[in-house]
Amino acid sequence: MRLTQLRYLVAVYEEKSFTAAARRVHATQSGLSMQIKDLEVRLGVKLFNRASTGVTPTPAGEKLYKRATHIMREVSAIQNDIDAMSGQITGTVYAGVMPTFARGVLAPVLDEFGKKYPQVEIKVLEAYSAVLSGGVAGGEIDMAIVPSSRDMSGIRGTHIDEDVEVFVSGPESPWEHLAPVNLSQCEPLKIALPSPENARRRKIDNYLATYNVPIDQIMELDSMMGTMDLVSKGEWATILPGCLVFPDMDGQQRKLHPITSPKLTVDYVLIEPESKTASEAARLFTEDLCANIRKTCAYCRENLAIG
Questions:
Q1: CB contact set of 41 (below 8 Å; sequence gap of 6+)
Q2: Does residue 77 sit in the same domain as residue 155?
């Protein structure tokens, strides 16, 4: 049994496809299939059921996957320990963040981290949760922060904190800045929201339906900065996380309104690859980013939430 075979097994299990797994590990499909077949012969068990609809693990495949991810984490931990013996924090950190954090939360962390660890290269991908989850599962991204959603194969998650969703309107709207708003008692809203594929959208839709919020028109806009710009210019409103809009506390370009009866929240989760241990540089960067997210969430709960 070789580490390469275990790496291939993990990829097939998580991708549920030999073709996708081969792309992920930069191997040919035939070569990957031969390695998995050789592993099955050596162990004397079938690890995957192959069908036209996809690949599913057998009970033996399930058990070996759990062992394999543990082994792969230990292997990466060994490399991290060796790297740490130099006494210097070096390397490259690939981080994924939602647009929620790109405005006011991320920059202070990057600035301070760069000063403390000048030999660490930071690469940041800003994207929505589906893209970030796929990048983490595939091992291209060391870590990412996403809204809490359904479990995804190949990822382990850790809850960070709870943020509040905020109703945001334009400077000429009839609502007073920072005045609480009961959405179910509003006139029919023209509201900009992310597409249904967005993890936050599902929770917002459920809220709007459950509390009979009157809607005149919904514009689907998968751009948080574009949404904010739209709201600042006219009659459209939106719902955005506190961590994104807290810089608008002055009310100059947009008005912020705590949502009441009841409040609407969003949970943030740190996701990391199931089969990989974070490097020391990635661990330190993650700690700093999560600490600033918690600090910002606390500020938003105190200033942008009612009840």
A1: none
A2: no
